[in-house]
Design brief:
Elements (H helix, E strand, L loop, with lengths): L4 E4 L6 E4 L1 H9 L9 H9 L8 E4 L8 E4 L9 E2 L1 H5 L18 H9 L4 E2 L3 E2 L10 E2 L5 E4 L8 E7 L8 E4 L8 E7 L2 E4 L2 E4 L2 E4 L5 E7 L5 E4 L2 E2 L2 H11 L4 H17 L1 E3 L3 E2 L5 E31 L2 E11 L2 E11 L2 E5 L2 E4 L2 E4 L2 E4 L2 E4 L8 E4 L2 E2 L2 H17 L2 E2 L5 E2 L18 H5 L4 H6 L35 E2 L13 E2 L3 H10 L8 H11 L6 E4 L28 E4 L8 E3 L1 H7 L2
Parallel strand pairs: 5-6, 7-8, 9-10, 10-11, 11-12, 12-14, 13-15, 15-16, 16-17, 19-37, 20-21, 21-22, 22-23, 23-24, 23-25, 24-26, 25-27, 26-28, 28-29
Antiparallel strand pairs: 1-2, 3-4, 17-18, 29-30, 31-32, 33-34, 35-36
Length: 593
Amino acid sequence: MPQSETRTCQNCQRDFQVTGYDKEFCKSLEAPLPTWCPNCRLQRRLSFRNEQNLYKRTCDAPGHSEQLISNYSDDKKVVVYDQEYWRSDNWDPMGYGQDYDFSRPFFEQFKELLAVVPFQSLVNFNNVNSEYCNFTADNKNCYLVFGGDYNEDCLYSTFNFQCKNSMDEYWSEKSASSYQSIDSTGLYKSFYCQLSGDCTDCWFLYDCKNLNNCLGCVGLKNKSFCILNKQYSKEEYAQKKQELKLHTRSGLEAFQKQFNELKMRMPRRFATILRSENSIGENLIEVKNCLNCFDVSGPAENIKDAYTVAFNVKDCLSINHMGHGIERVFDTFALWGPSNNIKHSFLGGVSFDVQYSMNFTSCNNIFGCLGLKNKSYCILNKQYGKEEYTELTQKIIEQMKELPYIDKKGREYKYGEFFPAEISPLDYNETIAYELFPMRKEEAVENGLGWKEKSIKDNKATLESIPDDIHDVEDGILKETLPCAHKGECADNCTIAFRVTSAELQFYKSLSLPVPDLCYKCRHYQRLKLRNPMNLWHRQCQCAGESSDNRKYKNTITHSHAQDHCPNEFETPYAPNRPEIVYCEQCYQQEVV
C-alpha cells in the first residue's frame, strides 16, 4: 500500500490526508488524486441536490402549460418537464448534442448544456397519491416525504422506509404511528425516540431496545413501565404519565427537559458501529473496511469518505446517496445499481463507464452528457463511434488538465474535479449542502453561489398563538395560518407561518399529540441538530475506573481496567469539548447492554 501524504485543500485551505487507499483507488480508475478535502468534496456535490424545497411552476414540455410541482423554481435557468413526459420517448436528449470546443474549458461548455436539456420536475417512482415527495419510490398517500421508500400515510419525513401512519421522522424503518423518531426502527405508537428499536407505547427514548410503556429512558433494554430509568408498577406508571400532561405542549417541554438532563448523565458509545469490521465513522451497520463513513448500511465493503449509502456497495471513494449494487465509483452521488466505474457524476442508474454526466439511465461510455437513456459512446449528448469516442475522450481529458475552468474565487477545476458549485442550477440555501454545511448569504455570494430569498408575502399568521392542549384544538384550525415560534429569525429556512393539513390534524388527535409550534422546516432542522456531525475526533475513553472522569456517572460494575482509567482510544463524532460522557465499546457494553 502506498504511503499517505498531506495535502492542502484547494477550497478550505486546511490540511488533509491522501491515504494509500486513495492512491491505489485513483490509480485503478485512472483518476487524479483529490485536491479538495473529503468534506469540501461532499459539500460541492450536495450543492446540486435539492430534496425538500418544492415549488409550483409551469411545465416546459411542448404542448404543456399546466402547473407542476418541482424542486426547480420558476426563476431557475433550467428547462423542466413533468416526470411522465420526461421519461417518455416524446423528446430526444440527443437533439441538444454539441461539438466539443477545445478552445474553451469543459465546465463552461457543460454549463451551456445544463441550460437547455430538460430536467424532470421531481424524482419519484411508482408513487400513489404522493405528489409532494422527492427522491422517493413506492409510497402511498404520503406528503412531503424525501428520500424515503415503501411508506404509507406518512408526512414530513426524510429517509423513512416501510413506515405507516408516521410523521416527522428522520432515518426511520418499519415503524407505525411513530412521531419525531430519529435513527430508529420497529417503533409502534412511540414518540421522540432516537437510536431505539422495537419499542411500543413509549415517549422520549435514547438508545433503548425492546421497551413498552416507558417514558424518558436512556440505554434500557427489555423493560416496561419505567420513567427516567426508574421502575414503576403498571398502576403507578399510568398515574405518573397522566400527571405529566404529555397531550400539551407545555407538558412535553417540561418533561423533555428532565429527559435531556438524564441523557447527559448517562454514558454513550463512542460511535454507532454495529456488526462491522475494521470501520470508522458513525451509524455504520454490517460493513467492512469502511473509513470516514456516515450512515452506511451493508453489505458494504472497502469504502472511504461516504455518506448515506446502502445495500451492496463496494470499492468506492467520495460517494453519497447511493446503493443497490454499486462498485468502483468516485466523487459521485445519487446513483443506483447495478453500476460500475462511474466518476464525477450525479443522478444516474444501471450504467457503466460514465464520466461527468447527470440524469442518465442505462448508459455506458458517456462523457459530459445530460438526460441520456440507453445510450453509448456519447460526448456532450452527441453520438460517436467506439474508436472515435475513445480517442476524443482522451484528448478532452488532456485539454481539461491544460485548460482548467477557473471559478469566481480563483479555484482551478482540472480533470478529476467534480462540477463547480457555481454552475449548479440551484441556490445554495435550497440544497442539502446548506443543511450539513451552513453558510451565510454573504459568504455564499462571495463564493459565486446563488441564494434564495424568503418569500414572505403569503406567510402571515392568522392566529396569534396555537392552543397548548390538543383537546382544545377544533377543526377550524385547518382554515388558519399558524405562527412559527422561530418567526423566521433562525437559520433553518423557516417558513415564518404554516398550515395544518386535515391528515396531520387527524394524526395529532388520534395519538393525543399537541399541535407543534414550529413549521415543518424548522422541525426538520431540529431533528438534524440532535444527530452527530459528520466529523471525527481522536479521543480516549472517559471511563475512569469507578465512574466517568467527570464524575457525573457511577459505574455499576467493575470493568476490566479495574480502578485505572480506561486506555482505549478511538475516532468519534463527539468533539472533545462536548459535555456527553463517551465510553469505548467495551466499557459501554459493560454498563448499558
